[in-house]
Structures are given as structure tokens and as C-alpha cells.
Specification:
Layout (H helix, E strand, L loop, with lengths): L1 H32 L8 H5 L25 H7 L75 H50 L1
Keywords: Membrane, Transmembrane, Transmembrane helix
Length: 204
Amino acid sequence: MGFVFRYCSVNVLFLGVILSFHGFLIVQSQPQNQSPPPPPSPVESIFPPPPPSFVLNQSPPIPPQQTPPPPQSTINDNTPPPTSPPPPLPSPPPPPPPPTPSPPPPPISNPPPPPPRAHASPPHNSRESPRNQPPRRLRPPSPPPPPPPPPPPSRVFKQSEKSGLNTGKTVGLVFAGFAAMLQICVVAFLVFKRKQLLRMTHTY
């Protein structure tokens, strides 16, 4: 019996916890599901609602009377006078007349012949005096031609050149002959010595 009583009490406690948790969830979900109250109308915001004790006895509130519009004369006084229409735009000026064609240029005439020169005066008569004749311009005398240059001393230079060449040739020939003589002597000396050596070898 004690075991059954304990088992029943545990079940009751468990059910109580579940129910309390479920009720707590329902209470929290109710304010979220409810729609917010509608906003008060402007008439109600102007006129406060009557107390609940006199709602049944009093008649419904009388709507406010609308004020009549002001007379038109006052409106006309306050409004500015109508502006006058703008003046019409001036008409555009007439187009200028087309330019008249310019007259053709006159033909180019040949230039007049140049006047005769002053020095080409008509010939004077032989009877006129020399005073009336214009003075003649005297040309300056031309400078005398330069004197011809003196002839160069070609003969002296040639003679000295020939003498120099002769002395050089002679000196060169002397040295060439001396060298040839030395070569001949050397060759003869070598031939003579060779023969002596050959004789000495044959004797031994």
C-alpha cells in the first residue's frame, strides 16, 4: 500500500509540474496574439470621454458646429490684385535687304611711259654758250695696273739643285762600290779557307 501511495503522489507531482509549465506558456503567448487597441480618433482626442457613471443618463455628444466661411469681400481684400498680362513681345525686325552687287573693277590700264631722263636732254645748239650747258661729271682716273712681279731665280735654284744631286750621287756610289768590294773580298776569303780545309782533310 505504501508503494502504491508513493507512486500516485509522484504521478500527481509530475502532472502538476507539467500543467504549471503549460499554463505559463499559455499566459506568455496571449499578450503576443492579441492585436493592439486601435488608436483613438481625433474627435475623441479633442473631447475627453465622459465618465462612465453619466454615460447612460446623458445624450450623445453634439458634434461641433462648423464656422461659416468668411465673406468673399474679405477674401478679395486679402488676396493680391491680379497681375496684368505681360506685354506682347515686339515683332522681329525685318530682314536686311540683300547687298547690292559691287560694280566690277575698272580694267587695269597700262602704266604711263616713264619720263625721259635728265641726262637725255635734247642736243644743244652749237651757238649756245658753254655757261648754259650743265657741267659734266668727271670720272675718277682709274688706278694704274700693278707692276709685274720679278721673275723667280729659277736658274740659280736649278744649278744648286743639280750640284746637290751630283754630290749625293757621288757619295752614294762611293759607298756602294766600297760595299761591293768588301763582299767580294769576304767571298774570296771564304772560298780560300774552304779549299784549305778540304786539303787538310784529304791529307789526314
